[in-house]
Each structure stands twice: as C-alpha cells, then as structure tokens.
Amino acid sequence: MDHVDDFNQDGNVDTKRSDIYAWPGKNNPYFEEFDGFPIQQGDYLLAEFVDVDQDGNYNPDNGDYPTVHNFSADRMPNRMIFFVYHHSGKYVFQSEYAITAFAFSCPKEQILHNSVFMSCRISNKNETQYKVKNSFLLNSVDPQVGCYLDDYVGCFPALNSAFWYNADANDGILQANSCPSSFSYKSKIPVISMTILNKKMDYFSADINIDSTGKIILQMENSFLRKYFNADGTFRKFTHPFNHETRDHQFSEDPNEEKSWSMYRMSNEQGVDFTIDQMIKTGS
C-alpha cells in the first residue's frame, strides 16, 4: 500500500491520499476536510482501521490506514466502502449495522476478481430495554440475472451458498412480457452466487408463485415473512415435492440432476403437480 510505504520511509506522510484521509475511522481529524461534512459524533466506533500508534484513534499522519478484519498491508483489498444503517421501531430493538464492502483486483483468479465481500458488525443500541439472548440474521436479497422475469434460484446448504441462474439459454425471452433488450444478457448469461463465509446458513427460502403456464416464478411481496415464518419467529419447514422429506432449505439440489428439488426441474419435469402451500409445513 502506497500510504504505508510512504509512512515507513521516515515516519512522515508526504502525500495525503484522499481514500486514506477520508476514511471514517474514529476521531479522524481530516474527515470533514476530505469528505465535505463532519461526523456528528467523532468519538465513535465506525470503520475498522490499523491503529499503528495504538492510541485508539484514526489519524493517517501517524501511519494509520483502513483495514477489514485486521488484514495486513500486503493483503489489503483494492477497493473498500464503508456504510452504516439503522433499524428501529415500536416492536423491534434499535440496531445498527456497520458494513464494510471490499473487493480484490485479481484477473488471474476470476472468481476472486468478480467477488464482492461484505463484513457486517451488528450492535444493539437499546440494551436497557431489549436484552437480546438469541437472534437470527435474515439476509433478504433480490439479485437480478439480467431480465428478472426468467430468473431461478437455488442453494447448496453444505456450502452455505445460494445462487441465481437463468431459466433457459436465452435471457429475457421466456415470457410474453419479456424485458427490454438492454436488461438482457441474451445468450451470454452469468450466474450470481452468495456465500456466508463464517456462519452457517440455517435456512433458505425463496418468494415464489406459479404462473398461468404452470412454471415457478420469483416474486417480491410484503407477505414474504408471514408466508415462511411462524408467529413465534421460528422457521417453517419445507416438504420435498418428490420424496416428501422435511427440509430447512428450499430448492437445495442440483438443477442438472433429474427429479432434483430445483426451480428448473419443478418447472420442466413431466408429471410434477404441486402447489406452493403443499411445500410449506405451517407451524412446524
């Protein structure tokens, strides 16, 4: 990292790089100068950083620099973005989500080169009223593989991963109300995947419906949580449509295999007759 090399030469920083000096570390004295607005509460744990002089504050003049999970300077991501959002309401505890998104430039390793990593720190901001003894983190995502009208989704529980793929070999022309060509990958279709690196994916579900032709389609509705969760916050189980086993993960088998529990096979296998409600075991 150029900033680290600059400081290590003589203990001074000769070039003030904006990506280093604008980083929202605790008590950064340069934040307003480089970002154009002040941090309302400077003495606050925000973005992670390497505290070279161990004074508890972020000051690039002292050699401090951004990090994620204490990565060493020679393993630092090429891009890092930090943001914060909050969740509060009448029936929920006040929570803060501090997210560091980062990526590596590594053309020789295409999977790494095309991956975006996210580190999340969750804090309870009202511990006096809400003592959280146990909780689940629900990650609701809505990726789109080009045209969203012909997307399918699946998961690999053993890998803590979910993936999104196209319904056929031509993106965007599966249905009559197909997407504009500008939203379509046409025949060069990628796959989108999401992997939880340091936790177990206990549960996976997709918000789905059945169209007029009998094919399964993805949708995003406000009733999603009521459909898949019981009143006490526990997960509803799924019934495998072929062998009738009880599962915690929906569409958890390889779409390439016949009679697999996948959106593709359930839409294209002959003799498959089911309803969405038949797959969900309410109250179990």
Could you walk me through the main structural features you see in this protein, from its secondary elements to its overall organization?
It is a single chain. By secondary structure, this protein is an alpha+beta fold. The protein has two domains: 2-124, no CATH class; 148-281, no CATH class. Helices cover 13% and strands 23% of the residues. The protein has seven helices and 13 strands. It has a three-stranded antiparallel sheet with strand order 3-4-5, with no helix packed on it. Strands 6-7-8 form a three-stranded antiparallel sheet, with no helix packed on it. The mean pLDDT is 83.
In short:
With 284 residues, the chain is of the alpha+beta class. The chain has helices at 2-10, 18-21, 31-35, 110-113, 224-228, 263-268, 276-279, and strands at 49-50, 65-66, 79-89, 92-103, 117-124, 151-156, 161-166, 192-195, 208-210, 216-218, 237-239, 246-247, 280-281.
